Amino acid sequence: MLVAIIGISILAAVIAAVVTASFAGVLAAELDDEE
User: Fold this and answer.
1) What span, in angstroms and rounded, lies between the C-alpha atoms of 22 and 15?
2) Is the pTM of this model over 0.85?
3) Which branch of life, at top level (predicted)?
4) Which of 15, 12, 11, 13 is nearest to 23 (CA)?
5) Helix, strand, or coil (residue 17)
6) What letter would DSSP give residue 35?
7) How far is it, in rounded angstroms, from Cα 29 to Cα 23?
């Protein structure tokens, strides 16, 4: 059970990192377009 919780936590962290990176990329692209 503990292993499952740790696995889910890691998976959630990875997903959060990917979403954050994607959002940052889109935001940077929009800023570049404005300039």
Assistant:
1) 11
2) no
3) Bacteria
4) 15
5) helix
6) -
7) 10
For residue 21, pLDDT over 70 is answered with yes
Backbone angles phi, psi at 8, to 5 degrees: -65, -40
Which residues in 1-35 are b (16+ Cβ under 10 Å) and which e? eeeeeeeeeeeeeeeeeeeeeeeeeeeeeeeeeee
Q: How many Å apart are CA 13 and CA 7, to the nearest integer?
A: 10
Tokens 């959002």 sit on residue: 23
Residues 34 and 3: their CA atoms lie apart, in Å, by: 47
